[in-house]
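Page 47, continued from p. 46.
Same chain as before, 120 aa.
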Amino acid sequence: QVQLVESGGGLVQPGGSLRLSCAASGTIFNIYTMGWFRQAPGKQRELVATIDTGDNTNYQNSVKGRFTISRDNAKRTVYLQMNSLKPEDTAVYYCNADIKTVMGRRLSPWGQGTQVTVSS
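Result:
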């Protein structure tokens, strides 16, 4: 019905930058809040940032001032600009979206994840 596909992950040195993208496709009627999560080895998946339909944003305290979440509704895409990256940012990053399908179903699909590794 709906799919989310992430891209943009990779290996970067401390202090570097990456931009993650997540594009939604399928039988979509509306997309509401979108967000980014991350999961490091041996740790719980945690919320990184969210953005709602009014472009209101929410960030985990550890990424405030370094990460920026944004969305392009025409492209059905959410972005995460990550600057001043630290080794502790290393994780698999997943996007998530609150979606209503054309059939009237309310779904919260996850992307496959993209690896971000911050290391010297």
